[in-house]
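Sanity check

After download, print the first record. It should look like this:
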Amino acid sequence: MLESRNKDGLVFGVVDMTVTLLGVIIGLSFSCDYNIIITAVIVTGVADSFANASGIFAISNVDDKKTNYTSSIYCFISTFLTMIIILFPFFIYDVSQAIYISSFISIILLVILGYYVMPKDYKYNYLVPLRFVVIALIVSAISYVIGFVFL
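Expected structure tokens:
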């Protein structure tokens, strides 16, 4: 079983990357340019992976007053793997189909993760995954409007 802080890094990485890439993909959906979407997802994913890992590392140094590499590594790996999972449909399907499939995969990831982090004795077991999905949908809606206005 994962230590609490390693689990925190893992969960943070997956949630952050899923919501971020969902926003990027939906925001760029108006371009329907395969190269632009792929490049944006990869650049965002790599940058976000390093940013998340360094943020978890910085927080662990502040809280524990000692270096904790493992939670940073978990965060980096989970963020990077999430990018690969969400990006994968773009290598198999055309852009318009890949956008829908990646969005669906993102929502499924958030629901699964919501159930994973939910307290076992939580009375309203649907609320945690629902919160993750609502946050992702809000980010997607904002990104969609931005893409509509600027693309």
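If your output differs, re-run the checksum step. Summary of this record's structure: The first helix runs from residue 4 to 27.
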